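Hi R.,

Here's the chain you asked about this morning:
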Amino acid sequence: MSHDALSRNARWALFLDVDGTLIELAPTPDSVHVPDALKSLLDEVSMRLEGALALVSGRSIADLDRLFAPQEFCASGVHGAERREANGKIVRAQVDTTLLDSVRDELGAFVARHEGLLLEDKSFALAVHFRLAPDLGDAVRAKVDSILDRIGKEYTLQAGKCVYEIRPRAWTKGTAVRTFLAQAPFAGRTPIYVGDDVTDEDAFRAVNELGGLSVRVGSAASTHATFALRSVADVHRWLRELPPPAPLLRVG
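And the predicted structure, written out as tokens:
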């Protein structure tokens, strides 16, 4: 579908990644701040779209609620493993975490031995951040790979910007988008997905297959997104124009 055709379609379903898309990346996940102006902007856009706006993040929904309080948007957390629907109900994947529990202490001990590493425990997933110690990226990858070799096929590696994560294989940001689009108020609308990282590529592919608009924030050597915005600030400016969307850069 062409950008011109999309611009004439007023019935949007908007899906937004958070870190690196709505807010700038920070040295640690807990050190980010969401300005009140952004919370108000998202609330206004959600109302314009009749509630068809959802945050889609690797963070947990509890963490998203802490950041965006007092607002509570439709949201998907932990790469699709949990989801808050429009009626406020939170649905969590039925995941047997026994295998993950068996390596949680081991990974925690590894992180404790290396200054600058941070373990983010999401219950369904475990993420090791190395933004404060980028030279340890290879060591983190090797440790995560060794754990994945032992805990079987139910979990997979999720790489991101200075983070390696062990997450359930069955759920992705793409499955989250597809699930939302099967329900009101998202059903029957044209999806837009905006994200900045390799963790968003599954969602880009899903949106492309559904005839929607995939938007990558920043530059990337390779992406499935068809359009781009240069920065977080550009995302905020673009959101103020919705709907219909303001012009976008075409990837490639």
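The CA atoms of residues 160 and 197 lie 6 Å apart.

Let me know if you need anything else.
M.
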